[in-house]
What we know:
Largest sheet: 5 strands, antiparallel
Mean pLDDT: 87
Distance between the termini: 50 Å
Helix content: under 10%
Amino acid sequence: MQQQHQHTARRSASGTRRFLKRNVGIALAVTAAAAVLASAPSVSASTWPGHSYSGSAVSDVRTAATFDFAAGEIPENITANPDGSVTLSLLGSCAVCQRTHGPELMRISASGERTVLATGQVGEAISGNARGSDGTVYYALWAPGNAARNGVYKLLADGTPERVAALPADSGPNGLAVDPTGRTLYIADSLKGVVWSAPASGGPVTPWLTDAALAPVPTEALPIGANGLRFHNGALWISNFNKGSLLRVPVTATGTAGPIHQIAGGLPNIDDLSFLTPFSDVVFAAQNGSSSNNGPDRVVVIYPNGTYKPVLTSADGLASPSATAVRGDRLYITDGGVPDPHDPKLQTARINIPALLAGAAH
């Protein structure tokens, strides 16, 4: 793996600093109180000072960081870290772009400082990334046709990448999740209709779940099946890009896959997702329509009963939104910038939690 150990770039640092640093100290009360969303929409708005049942569920959309599309800085995935930083996967190229740049894994600190943690080769993609409970950073490297490189890597203490899960050459590793114990990795394979599992410390991969519900649609312009992946409340939550579905699969006491439940459908090009809080099953999902001219560019909130509504659209500046993350009452969105004028960026927005409660009541 080509590396740029702790290679720091200060591009657009001042603008990024303003938007990330302000969100480090969000009160823990927001996380605890929002757990009621799935079952008790009648909680008083006074629980969240400065929020209101009226108005938009998501507002105050701003650009936190901009990137250079021509240089392959195409945001694909995001992890919001406890210290206020974010970790971004930058594709380097995309399905409709010229493959002239290698991918990067980048951290942007709360002060706006950019550090390239790892890089890949031209023609590869860094897709999903995740953070273990011990702080270990993992990322999926999609190296088409190259069994010697395809798979999941972790960053060692000195910053060196180490492959911990080798995948077949014809696999398409995309979304990535780590179980709460930090012992098991789960990998969404966008090409084979499989979710793989592997020891986080390194070892052989095993097909954890294989099902038609995870498979791509071969006739689609961009045949991508299982895409976004999150371990949440004892289950794996999986989006299927082509089939427009969000699935929930319980992890049994023995670690095997339980029955597949479809939470929502009718969401073409649904990409990666995040949850309002660790306790709530309210989902923010990106719909990456412009990546293959199939459906809208928007972020939708999906309620536990399967109903959903858009909270951000292209009118808010979305351009190939690929992933979301939540910290406190702040929503983060990665935009790949595939359509003209090619403006990849990281956006932030404010979540009006009582307005979400009101939406859950209808």
